[in-house]
Amino acid sequence: MRASLATIALSAVALLLPVGGSAREIPENIKQLKAAIIAKGDCQKKLASGFRVTEGNPTTGAYCGDMLDKYGIIYQQMPSGQLSDMDVDCDGQQANRTGDDGSCGLSTDTQPQTSFRSNVRANGAAAAIGVQDLNPFIHSYVVFGNTNEGKPSWPSFDPQDRGRRKLLGGKRVEPLSVMAVVCGDNLFYGLWGDENGPDGRYPMIGEAGIGLARACFGGATTIDGGHGWSNTDVLYLAFTGSDAVPDASRQPRWDATNFADFERSLAPVGDALVSRVEKSAAGRPACPPSFLRLPGIIHSTLVAALPLAAQPTSYRAMRQRPSR
User: Fold this and answer.
1) How far is it, in rounded angstroms, from Cα 33 to Cα 26?
2) Mind giving me the DSSP string for 28-89?
3) Where is pLDDT greater, at 157 or 14?
4) At the N or C end, where does the chain have fewer CB atoms within 10 A?
C-alpha cells in the first residue's frame, strides 16, 4: 500500500508511541553502517534506479550494491542521504488468518498471494502445519525487488539475479532469506517475502508486511492497510548467500500465533548475518595507531600533508587555534 497524505500526518504521531513486537537495540556495527550510508549521500554502485517512495514526489532512489562485494549486502537509498520509507503490505494469506483485525480492508492494492507462496508451500516445516502463504499480521516480511510485467519501460530489479544482466556478480538473494530492518531506534528481522509489482502509477520501493510495520511504528492506532510510514529513514538490508535462508535446524516459528514470537525466531540467522559487518563500516580511522606514534617532526610533516578532515582532531584544533 502506497503512502498518502494521511501517512505523512501520522509519521510524527507514531514517534510518540511505544514500539511493539520484539524490538532489539541496533548493534554498534549496524549503527555505523547506517551512518556511513547516510553520510555518503547517495550510493555509488546503483544496481537499479528510478524508484519512488511516494507517488507525489518525483525524486527517485535506487537499489545499492556499495556493500555487496565486502559484506554481501544490498540496500535501498534515496538521494541526499535519505534511505527508504515503509508502506504497508497486506498480500498473502487472506482467509482465516490469525491476528487479522480487519485493518487491511483499507488497502487498495492487496494481492491474494505473495511472490513466494510456492516457496512457503515447499518448506517442509511450514507445510507440515498447513501454512500455505505468508500471513502479513504474523509473519515478519519485507517487500524487496521490483517487477515490471506489462510495463517494460519501468525499471525493475531482481535480487535473485536470474536474468542475463548478472548485476550481482554471481551472488543472489534467496527467497525467504532473512533481512534486517533498521527503523527508529530498533532492529527487526524479516523474511524476504514479496516483491513490488507494476501496479500503481509509478515504480515504488519501501514496503513491509503490516505486522512488521506496526512493530516499527506504533501499532494499530497509527498503522493500517491505508497508512504507513512516510519518512525516508528506514534501512532495509538484504543478504546474499544460502546462509541467509533458515536451514532445518533454525526454522522460523511457523506455528507462531503472534508477530513477536515469529520475529524472534529469525534472530539466530539474523544475528549471524549482521555480524558480517565490521564495526569500521563507517570508515577507517583517520590515522592508524602506528602512524600516530611517529616521532616529532616526521609525524607533524606527514599529518600536515593530509586533507584537513583526515587530520587528528587534536592536530586540527592546534592549527586552527587563533594566534595571540
Assistant:
1) 11
2) HHHHHHHHHHHHH-S-SSEEEEEEBSSTT----EEEE-TTHHHH-EEEEE-STT--EEEEEE
3) 157
4) C
E-only strand ranges, the chain: 24-25, 46-51, 61-64, 73-77, 84-89, 141-146, 178-183, 186-196, 207-209, 229-239
In this predicted structure, the answer to whether residue 99 has a pLDDT above a threshold of 90 is: yes
C-alpha cell at 148: 515490471
How many other C-beta atoms lie within 10 A of the C-beta of residue 29?
Answer: 17
One-letter amino acid identity for 103?
S
pLDDT in tens, 186-220: 999 999 999 999 989 999 999 999 999 999 998 77
Torsion of CA 137, 141, 142, 147, to 10 degrees: -90
Distances (CA, A) of 184 to 5, 25, 229, 235: 21, 10, 11, 10
Residue 39: what residue type?
A
The Cα–Cα gap between 202 and 205 comes to 10
Query: Position 307: which residue type?
Result: P
Which tens digits make up the pLDDT trace of 107-119?
Answer: 988 999 999 999 9
Residue 31: how many other CB atoms lie within 10 Å = 17
In sequence order, the 6+-apart residues with CB closer than 8 A to the CB of 152 are none
pLDDT band, residue 225 (cuts 50/70/90) = very high
Per-domain residue ranges of the chain: 24-276
Residues 6+ apart with CB under 8 A from 92: 113, 114, 117, 133, 134, 135, 136, 139, 193, 194, 209
d(CA 22, CA 265): 10
Strands 73-77 and 61-64 come out as antiparallel
User: Residues for the chain: how many in total?
Assistant: 324
Residue 285 predicted with pLDDT over 80: no
Question: Pairing mode, if any, of strands 186-196 and 141-146?
Answer: parallel
pTM of the model: 0.82
